[in-house]
Every structure is written in C-alpha cells, then in structure tokens.
C-alpha cells in the first residue's frame, strides 16, 4: 500500500489543490491494515463526453496515488441503470462509492442503503434530501456559474438579445442553474428566450446538434443573437450546428469546460465566446480524497462547494485573432 500524506488529503480538499507536507504522517491504521486494495466505485449518470472523461481521469489519477482500485460506471442518463450500478456496488461490498448526477426521487434512499452497509459515500451534483451522517454532498457553485456565463451574454449584448437556452430538467445542477437564470432573466427584461431545448442521451452532442439545426431553420439570420448552454455537452452540439449551417453570427455562452471545448474556442471564427467552469478533473480527484479521509477516520464536511472561474475566448485565441 502506498503511503498517504494526510496533508495531501486534508489540505488538498480544503484548498482544492494537492499540498504535500514536509514530513508525511503515518498511514492511518484503517488503510494500512486493510485486507487487499481499497475498492472505490465511481458511478456517474451521464455519458462518456469529454467533461466526464476528465472527471473520471481525476478520480483514477488520485486513486492511483493513494493505491486504491477505482472502478467506473456510466449510465448515460438512464436512471434505472444508474440505480442498478449502485445496488451492484453495494452488494459487491465496495469500500467507497462516489455518485455523480443521481436524481430524485431515488438518490437519497440509495445513499442511505450504502451507508447502512458500511460503505463510505461522497456524492457530486446528486439529489440528496437532508444531511446523512458521514456523507459529503459536493456541488459546483451553480449560481456563480450562471451569473458569470449568462451575465457575460447580457453584458455583450447590452441587455437586449433573443436567445436559445440549452437545458434539461431533473438534474440538481440544472435545476439550480435554471433558478439563477430565471432571477437574472427578470432583472434583464431585454433578454428574450425564444426556445429552450435539451436531452440527455448516449449522444448528447449529436442529438443537440440536430435540435439546434431545426431551430436554425425556423429562425433566419438576425432572429437569434446568442445561445446559452447550461452544460458543455449541449454547447458542443450547438457549436456543431452553428458551423454546419453557416450561422456563426450567433454567439455561444456555456457552463462547464473540457479540452474539446477549449479546442473549439480556439478555432478561427469560433462563435464560442465564454465558458464558466470548475476543472472536472479536480472534482473527480477531490471526491476520491473525501472517500480516503472517511476510510482513514479523518473528519470530512457535510457539504463542499467548488468555486467557478470564467474562461473567455481571448485567453485561448492566438493573439493575431483577438
């Protein structure tokens, strides 16, 4: 078993960065004396988009550092499959479970079932009702994500624009972003929502591109000023539709970030103006550290918020194109 510096787990969690102590503390007994490798199941109710790939990479990388065995399961927005994955992880007696994007009405019962089975649990952007002892509920600061991304749209268009919103109901972060959006919309009556579309599937990008393409056919040039995406997988599909239909006069604003997004923002003539996000790799790694602390008997918070940062196109375009 690899040595685990508690400063890496604890300070890394509090500061959202890994920090090594000058003299690593001994491995906690609960970890050092564990029979075989510690097994963690990472179960995410989304598909294998680039954001998810980085989330999983963060979890795998952190698990490797700690000597843990990480298994990952993606349910592509299929709630029945997600629940089945969780129940399998419980029956297979994993030491820890990380849940991502679990929804109502089933997530709370699943988390309690895992805890009752003696499994350590951390959840990210998952609908959990009330505080469950020993469980950390983490989420992005969705109000600031919305304010920074949608707020930039409002600023760029001086408070007057016709927009299309990319959104889907049911997922906790989407609901929080929608609530913040509605508040901002009331504060900016010059922004008009023409359409709201979205779907979670095994091909979010392709399905969104088709939906946006249909909207572009409905609204000729000059009728849509911007698209606001509440998830970068939606925005990738919108970008594809804008490029394929020659409609890059429509500007794109998004929440979440991935390597693919940055590449699209760098392209010549890209309509993608800004993304606001937390590094998904950091989110995956932090949740593994949370589980490690729980197994080690270290204190962990009941809740943890990841702060957002805006990434404007000018940061990624070659200087000659800015």
What does this structure look like?
With 322 residues, the chain is α/β, with parallel strands linked by helices. The chain folds into two domains: 165 residues, 3-Layer(aba) Sandwich (Rossmann fold), CATH 3.40.50.2300; 147 residues, Response regulator (Rossmann fold), CATH 3.40.50.2300. The strands form two sheets. The protein has a six-stranded parallel beta sheet with strand order 2-1-3-4-5-11, with helices on both faces. The protein has a six-stranded mixed beta sheet with strand order 7-6-8-9-10-12, with helices on both faces. β3, α5 and β4 form a beta-alpha-beta unit. α1 packs across α11. It is elongated. The N terminus is likely disordered. Belongs to the bacterial solute-binding protein 2 family. GO terms for molecular function: carbohydrate binding. This is Sugar ABC transporter substrate-binding protein. Keywords: Signal. It is found in: Periplasm.
Key features?
322 residues; alpha/beta; Rossmann fold; 6-stranded parallel β-sheet; 12 strands; elongated; disordered N terminus; Peripla_BP_I; Bact_Solute-Bind_Prot2; SBP_2_dom; signal; Sugar ABC transporter substrate-binding protein
The CATH superfamily of the largest domain turns out to be Response regulator
Structurally, how many domains make up the residues?
Answer: 2
How do the strands of the widest beta sheet line up side by side?
2-1-3-4-5-11
Mean pLDDT: 88
**What is the H/E order?**
HHEHEHEHEEHEHEHEHEHEHEE
The helix-and-strand class reads alpha/beta
**Amount of helix:** 40-55%
CATH architecture field of the largest domain: 3-Layer(aba) Sandwich
Number of helices, where a helix is a run of at least 4 consecutive DSSP H or I residues: 11
Q: What is the first-to-last residue Cα distance? A: 50 Å
| Annotated CATH topology of the largest domain | Rossmann fold
Give the biggest beta sheet.
6 strands, parallel
Name of the level-1 CATH class of the largest domain: Alpha Beta
Would you identify the regions where 5 or more consecutive residues have pLDDT less than 50? 1-25
């Amino acid at each position: 078993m690899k040595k685990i510096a508690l400063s890496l787990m604890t300070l890394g969690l509090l500061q959202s960065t890994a920090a090594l102590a000058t003299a690593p503390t001994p491995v906690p007994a609960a970890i050092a004396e564990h029979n075989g490798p510690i097994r963690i199941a990472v179960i995410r109710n989304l598909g294998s988009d680039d954001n998810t790939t980085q989330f999983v990479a963060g979890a795998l990388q952190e698990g490797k550092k700690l000597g843990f065995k990480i298994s990952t399961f993606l349910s592509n927005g299929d709630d029945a499959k997600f629940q089945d994955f969780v129940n399998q992880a419980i029956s297979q007696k994993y030491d820890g479970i990380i849940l991502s994007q679990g929804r109502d009405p089933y997530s709370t019962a699943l988390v309690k079932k895992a805890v009752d089975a003696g499994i350590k649990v951390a959840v990210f952007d998952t609908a959990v009702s009330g505080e469950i002892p020993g469980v950390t509920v983490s989420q992005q600061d969705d109000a600031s994500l919305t304010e920074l991304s949608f707020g930039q749209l409002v600023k760029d268009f001086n408070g007057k624009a016709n927009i299309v919103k990319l959104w889907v109901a049911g997922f906790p972060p989407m609901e929080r972003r929608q609530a913040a959006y509605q508040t901002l919309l009331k504060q900016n009556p010059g922004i008009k929502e023409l359409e709201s579309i979205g779907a979670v599937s095994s091909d979010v990008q392709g399905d969104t591109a088709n939906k946006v393409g249909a909207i572009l056919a409905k609204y000729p040039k000059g009728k849509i000023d911007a698209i606001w995406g509440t998830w970068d997988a939606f925005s990738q599909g919108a970008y594809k539709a804008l490029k394929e239909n020659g409609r890059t006069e429509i500007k794109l604003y998004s929440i979440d970030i991935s390597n693919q997004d940055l590449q699209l923002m760098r392209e010549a003539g890209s309509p993608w103006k800004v993304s606001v996000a937390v590094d998904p790799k950091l989110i995956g790694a932090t949740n593994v550290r949370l589980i490690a602390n729980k197994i080690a008997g270290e204190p962990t918070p009941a809740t943890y918020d990841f702060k957002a940062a805006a990434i404007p196109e000018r940061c990624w375009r070659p200087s000659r194109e800015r």
